[in-house]
TrEMBL record:
Pfam families: HTH_1, TOBE. This is Molybdenum-dependent transcriptional regulator. Residues 114-180, 185-252 form the Mop domain. It comes from Phytopseudomonas dryadis. SUPFAM superfamilies: MOP-like, Winged helix' DNA-binding domain. PANTHER family: DNA-BINDING TRANSCRIPTIONAL DUAL REGULATOR MODE, TRANSCRIPTIONAL REGULATOR MODE.
């Protein structure tokens, strides 16, 4: 099963996201596409970020700001995904017609994982190194960007991980530490350089910071505005994102 097929199955469980992709292809605007798909502007950005992060290549090419709230178009990979989705819909209809027991369908629904982790990054296992009762899993993100995850030996076996295995790395937004590039880095932590794309402030809590990585993936972090200002971090600034290997959760397709 190809990565594109797995991604199409992921999107199939969220039909609003397919509607969003269809509307982006038609409208060429994130604002208009979100409205037509029944999503808020913020929810549309979240959906685009997650889909681009899960794909080997970005599905949507975006431009921030401008007339209409930012332009958007499907990439060649996005167009292929929509075509594949149409074929999967036809197959799904045949499967549903052949289903003998609704309980089986309900069980399949429970097995389709949803997670509260804002950051879901596709990648492949580069290597696995034993560290006592744990394993240090070296992961290669699209574009060759490396991160590390520390998991138990039992988790490695249960996920059937080995070099070359495809997986999804899950990282909560609150676990990401942001700092200016000039600040000293902690060599014990994962480090991903990026550029601040958006800062969405909240009146009663930390701001949501969207960070564009060089490989086309996007991270979402939480940070206090006063801390960002103290480091001179603003929209357009280069930023260093760090997080511990123990804070990277791993998932694979069932």
């Amino acid at each position: 099963m190809t990565d594109l097929t797995l991604l199409a199955q992921h999107v199939t469980r969220r039909p609003q996201r397919i509607a969003l992709l269809e509307q982006i292809a038609e409208q060429g605007s994130i604002t208009r596409a979100a409205k037509a798909a029944g999503l808020s502007y913020k929810a549309a950005w979240d959906a685009i970020d997650e889909l681009n992060n899960l794909a080997e290549q970005p599905l949507v090419a975006r431009s921030v700001g401008g007339k209409g709230g930012g332009g958007a178009r499907l990439t060649t990979a996005g167009e292929r995904l929509l075509s594949l989705y149409g074929r999967l819909q036809a197959i799904q209809a045949q499967v549903l017609q052949a289903a003998e027991d609704d309980a089986d369908l309900q069980l399949l629904g429970r097995l389709m994982l949803r997670t509260s982790a804002r950051n879901q990054l596709s990648g492949k296992v580069r290597s696995i190194t034993a560290q006592g009762c744990n394993d240090l899993v070296e992961i290669e993100l699209p574009g060759g960007m490396p991160i590390r995850a520390q998991i138990t030996r039992g988790s490695t076996q249960r996920l059937q991980l080995q070099p070359g295995s495809s997986l999804v790395a899950l990282i909560k937004a609150g676990w990401l530490q942001l700092s200016a590039p000039a600040q000293p880095a902690d060599p014990r932590l994962n480090l991903l350089p990026g550029r601040i794309e958006q800062i969405l402030g909240e009146a009663d809590g930390p701001s949501e910071v969207r960070i564009a990585l060089a490989n086309g993936q996007t991270l979402c972090a939480l940070a206090e505005v006063v801390d960002l200002e103290a480091q001179g971090l603003r929209v357009g600034s280069m930023v260093r994102v760090q997080f511990a290997a123990s804070q990277v959760l791993l998932g694979t397709q069932i």
